[in-house]
Amino acid sequence: MAVLPQQVIKPARRVIRDPILAITLVVIVLFVGVSIILPIFAMVRESLSEQGLSLFSRYLSETSYQTIISNTVILGLAVATLGTLIGFLFAYVQVKVRVPFKRFMHILALVPIISPPFALASALIILFGRNGMILRGIFGTRCLWGSGRTCNDIYGLDGLTIVLALSLFTVAYLNLKGMLEALDPALDEAATNLGGSKWHIFRTVTVPMLVPGIASSFLLLFVEAIADLGNPLVLGGNYEVLATRIYISVIGMYDTTAAAVLSVVLLVPSLTVFIVQRYWISRATVVSVTGKPSGTPQQITHPLVCLPLFVLVMAVCLLIILLYATIFVGAFTNVLGVDNTFTLKNFDFVINGYGSEAMVDTTTLSALATPLAGIIGMIIAFLVVRKSFAGRAALDFAAMLGIAVPGTILGIGYLLMFNNDIQIMLPGIGPVTLIPKLTGGRAIFAGAAAIVLVYVVRSVPAALRSGVALLTQIDPAIEEASTSLGANSEQTFRHITLPLIRPAFLSGLIFAFARSMTTISAIVFLTTPQTRIMTAQILNEVENGRFGNAFAYCVILILIVLLTIGILYAAVGSTSGADRGLEGGA
Amino acid sequence: MAATESLVLNDVTKIFQQRGGAGVVKAVDRVSLTIRKGEFVTLLGPSGCGKTTTLRLIAGFEMPSSGRIVLDGTDITYQPPNKRDMAMVFQSYALFPHMNVFDNVAYGLRIRKLSRSDIQTRVENALALVGLSGLGNRKPNQLSGGQQQRVALARALVMEPQVLLFDEPLSNLDAKLRVQMRGEIHALQRRLNITSVYVTHDQVEAMALSDRIVVMNAGRIEQIGTPDEIYRRPNTRFVADFIGRANFIDTTVVQAQGERVTVELFGTRVELQSNGRSVKPGERQTAVVRPEGLKLRADPTLEQVLIEQAMYLGSEIEYIVRAGDQRLVVVDSDPRTSQIFPEGETVGLDIIGEAVHLLPPEETSARA
Ligand SMILES: Nc1ncnc2c1ncn2[C@@H]1O[C@H](COP(=O)(O)OP(=O)(O)OP(=O)(O)O)[C@@H](O)[C@H]1O
Ligand SMILES: [Mg+2]
């Protein structure tokens, strides 16, 4: 046997061993760096300019700005509280209480996922506004309570809290439903055997076990609520929040420095809460839900418990139905509440008229962004779960920033970063454009590239999380078996990993499309006269009081999303295309 | 020699950095090993001794921190796992759950872009080999544990690899099936003559299957040898203890003449082979005596021992006896022909010379 020299292996060997992986990693890191990190960096840099720094001290000391800041926090807390409460109510009734119409309740809890911004707020105004069909029409008043100077109408904190809680509670519902289902029923049984009453069990067993889930839902809703732009814009009234202030700074005053400074002020609580939620609370959540459920879950049947819960859930369901019905009816009505005659002119406007371009543009760009977001999400999930490399946690975190950072802030970042060509000077060659101008007039693809990029960035986190969740449940030996049989990284990912995480991929795609179609805050600064986006058009119609057109937009948007979900299910959900693809390729 | 050696591990070390940089684990510590063509070698050792890591180094899933791995004269230390002409059978089977049996077995051949008809014949042959003909359309979850194991085996065999790797392939099966599959793997390997490296912590499995056994402990190789060598002539106290059961008895060398050594055990003089080691009269040594090397007889001329425990196990009787200040295990493997002694009785202890083996001196002094 030949004596071979003892040698220490350098890390570079790892990369050379798997070039496909290395290239993928570089591409992904570049993508995350350019589309997420650079814009945020540009925004922070702008806020730290000389002018920005002086604005900081002004904003933090002036009472009008202090009010805006406290408004934002109060709204966040109120929405998080109400939304988590509704989510918990739905989840608890769904899992632990014996009531009829469970399927119906479940579906209604999912409906708000595809609510276009402004849709619920506008419907609420039509019904409960100062001239609302219910408030004015049935109760003959303009105020929810009080009158004259003390009149409290639907505009402001109360209306906003209701609309945002209804739009966002789905997150809390799904989160808590999963936890409740995973709670070991043996635990309940054990407590019952020890002689505890149902109420006692609820207080001492169920709730403590759910605390991490409740906290996590609360924080998620808080982040989403303080980031929301659309609802405060139409339903805020005098109640101004940071997101709307940022919007006005850019759109009304063209003051991007002020916007950047306010963005940093908004970014601090958003990121803090996000980090707490992600790295502290959700860790506790995982720990408490690992045991395999055994035994049959016990359900509460006592009428004194069932009936009030049932009534409460049904009341929320009916409110949701009422709001969506208003949207649909409003779309077919001249001026709902004033001139209730049937008309198709709203649809004519959207489909054949001014709106058709927006409809086509939005759908096309969303359809472009959806597969990109799905694939990128799955690839990052794969890298994060299966591969060990320096900066793995950082990559995961950076990708998650796409959703942790409020959309408005991301939009400003894009404006600041990509409003000019990004060039480097090369000696002898002259300036070379690395990234062409993406936003504003004369932008590449009339700004469409930036919008697609934002859509992708906003959708990747959801796909990433569902991918990670599924991947960690799959035995890594399955992928190693593929490698051992001669497949390279790319073949293994395509033939084995992707088919196995198809449910996560599908939900990632659906979420990406729904999110792209309905997002407003992130793209509101990026639309150009040549690239129209439906949500921005809806805002325009609502601001001008043309609710009929806005509702028609909403209805069409919902239909497009539903249709696409159907198509995605048919394409991704059923076939076992992986093995076939392999056979075809062989 | 060079023509017959297939796989060589040369001074291979694997150090794992613990997560968070807290510390390092030397999972494999300067392992050298030469495996011949067609040989069946088992890595045997307690949990955490580095068996799986060694196997994964051979497969290429891990890269050694230092050292070399050579396959058929080619250095494959840095070769990625998918380029190595090896196939692995996993403990969890690792079947592709979204593919049927046929597609599972065909997977590697399709990656190699073989023709459709070639694939068809080879997969069918492989399935026939493991006794699964006709089940090609089943999904893995429609198979029993044993059948899943066969699919995993067929999937590896169909590649006709130079080396087959097994990581505790039978540990998820129930005891009966385990014995049956063990026999089938043994027969298949001998028939196809594929070089195999097999990881297990079950010594019976290792004994039954292997041409040679590599006993590992804490990342190091303790001993390499045929099952018989490992059992009858363990190099270390650890090996003697891990493989089968062993009595360790301190002894004095009485006489040493070339290969023939006489030692005194409980007053009885026993003659044994030195196995090439130099031993001098008067030296203290540790002798290893297997339980079946001790016999109990109602003979007052022998060393008298007290029976503390007697367990009737059907095919054998196991005694725990006290001899002086030492406890010994004695197994009588043919209770039909010999007398059965009750607990509490005092009987004579006979020692069979061929069953006594002296541990190397460093083992005697350092670890005793
Ligand atoms: N990826 C890893 N990172 C850090 N330490 C590891 C890693 N893999 C293995 N180890 C450590 O290396 C040592 C050897 O592990 P290995 O899996 O090879 O043991 P084994 O002999 O196969 O044990 P078992 O019989 O339990 O499977 C153990 O201490 C283990 O904790
Ligand atoms: Mg192991």
Description of the molecule:
The complex is a heterodimer of chains A (586) and B (368). Chain A is 71% helix and 3% strand. Chain A has a domain at 52-253 and 300-331: MetI-like (MetI-like fold, Orthogonal Bundle). Chain A has 586 residues and is mainly alpha-helical. In chain A, helix 3 crosses helix 12, helix 12 (256-288) packs across helix 17 (407-418) and helix 15 runs parallel beside helix 18. Chain A is globular and about 80 Å long. In chain A, strands 1-2 form a two-stranded antiparallel ribbon. Chain A has a two-stranded antiparallel ribbon with strand order 3-4. By secondary structure, chain B is an alpha+beta fold. Chain B has helices spanning 51-59, 101-111, 116-129, 145-157, 175-192, 203-209, 227-232, 237-242, 361-367, and strands at 5-17, 24-36, 40-44, 66-71, 74-75, 86-89, 163-167, 195-200, 212-217, 220-225, 247-257, 260-265, 268-273, 284-289, 294-297, 303-312, 317-323, 326-332, 346-351, 356-358. In chain B, strands 6-7-8-3-9-10 form a 6-stranded mixed beta sheet, sandwiched between helices. A 5-stranded antiparallel beta sheet of chain B has the order 13-12-11-14-20. In chain B, helix 2 (101-111) packs across helix 3 (116-129) and helix 3 crosses helix 4. Chain B starts with a strand and ends with a helix. Residues 364-368 of chain B have low confidence and may be disordered. The chains are: A mainly alpha (586), B alpha+beta (368). Chains A and B meet through helix 1, helix 19, helix 20 and helix 24 of A and strand 1, strand 4, strand 6 and helix 2 of B. Residues 51-52 of chain B line the site of magnesium ion.
